[in-house]
């Protein structure tokens, strides 16, 4: 009985995590410029990672493996924003232009 | 000094045990010897500021854990918001690069604040220029949330910093 409940909770968490990963990929394809896409991929998956690993931990139960699983999101949380920041900084340094709402409207009107 | 050395060794040993997961004498003794040796070389990297006492450090760790819980909740709210943006057919985004003046002084709290901004979806810290952060926000609502300064106040509380008005 407890196993069934455990599995249901784990599946719920994993599906929710996959949903947020999917939205971040959809965002990657749909957003207009480099910076916005960075929003989607760089950390749109933070919540996805948390939920996915929460699901794995619930599925695993209280073991040494689940402790290791808990450490993976911690390290991702340290590494992911740092990498996103340095990519963004590189983009600013080589003058990548950002998409802006008003500008694109004007261009649309003149075209 | 000795206390800090022992704490470093204990932290390293706990990590060793968790990652190895083998409890026979060979692995436990190797781990103990190695963590004592490595702590000897590296304890002054882990505890840079030796002025802070150990209870103060524990208090800081406790406040930091509290802050992480609040941050997780913020991540949930902001992520749902960005997911809605990505899925809505007309995609009402309005990206802007904004300048956020920061009052934090310590390096640790600035790193924590910049990484928290990047972790909450919708805002990325792009660059640090003196005492302003260059932040790319995907939407003006998320930018306003950031400019309200609540996150900065919480970071300042964690690291016991006084926020002087600019």
Which radius of gyration of chain B do the C-alpha atoms yield? 21 Å
Q: In which range does the helix fraction of chain A lie?
A: over 70%
- Helix share bin of chain B: 55-70%
Query: Main beta sheet of chain A, described?
Result: none
Shape of chain A: elongated
Work out the oligomeric state of the chains in this entry: heterodimer
Strand content of chain A: under 5%
How are the SSEs placed, and which strands pair?
The complex is a heterodimer of chains A (111) and B (166).
Chain A: H1 2-30, H2 34-44, H3 46-60, H4 64-93, H5 101-110
Helix pairs in contact in A: 1-2, 1-3, 2-4, 3-4
Chain B: H1 2-20, H2 25-46, H3 54-87, E1 96-101, H4 107-119, E2 123-129, E3 132-137, H5 140-147, H6 150-158
Antiparallel strand pairs in B: 1-3, 2-3
What features would you describe in this structure?
The complex is a heterodimer of chains A (111) and B (166). Chain A has 111 residues and is an all-alpha fold. Chain A has helices spanning 2-30, 34-44, 46-60, 64-93, 101-110. Mean pLDDT of chain A is 80; it is low at 106-111. By secondary structure, chain B is mainly α. Chain B has 2 domains: 2-46, no CATH class; 54-158, no CATH class. In chain B, a hairpin with a 2-residue loop joins strand 2 and strand 3. In chain B, helix 1 (2-20) packs across helix 2, helix 3 (54-87) runs antiparallel to helix 6 (150-158) and helix 4 crosses helix 6 (150-158). The radius of gyration of chain B is 21 Å and the shape is elongated. The two termini of chain B are 38 Å apart. Chains A and B meet through helix 1, helix 2, helix 3 and helix 4 of A and helix 3, helix 4 and strand 2 of B.
């Amino acid at each position: 009985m407890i196993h069934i409940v455990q599995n249901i909770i784990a599946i719920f968490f994993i599906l929710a995590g996959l949903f947020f990963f999917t939205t971040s990929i959809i965002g990657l394809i749909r957003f207009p410029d480099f910076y916005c896409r960075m929003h989607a991929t760089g950390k749109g998956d933070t919540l996805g990672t948390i939920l996915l690993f929460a699901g794995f931990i619930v599925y695993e139960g209280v073991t040494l493996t689940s402790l290791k699983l808990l450490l993976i999101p911690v390290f991702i949380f340290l590494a992911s924003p740092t990498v996103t920041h340095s990519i963004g900084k590189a983009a600013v340094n080589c003058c990548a232009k950002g998409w802006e709402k008003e500008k694109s409207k004007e261009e649309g009107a003149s075209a | 000094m000795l206390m800090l050395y022992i704490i470093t060794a204990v932290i390293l040993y706990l990590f060793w045990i968790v990652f190895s997961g083998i409890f026979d004498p060979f692995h436990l003794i190797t781990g103990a010897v190695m963590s004592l040796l490595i702590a000897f070389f590296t304890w002054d990297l882990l505890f840079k500021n030796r002025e802070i006492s150990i209870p103060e450090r524990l208090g800081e760790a406790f406040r930091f854990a509290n802050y992480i819980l609040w941050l997780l909740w913020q991540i949930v709210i902001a992520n749902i918001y960005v997911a809605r943006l990505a899925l809505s057919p007309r995609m009402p985004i309005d990206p802007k690069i904004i300048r956020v003046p920061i009052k934090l002084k310590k390096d640790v709290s600035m790193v924590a604040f910049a990484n928290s901004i990047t972790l909450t979806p919708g805002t990325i810290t792009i660059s640090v220029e003196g005492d302003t952060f260059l932040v790319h926000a995907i939407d003006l609502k998320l930018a306003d949330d950031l400019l309200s300064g609540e996150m900065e106040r919480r970071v300042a509380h964690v690291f016991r910093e006084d926020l002087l008005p600019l």
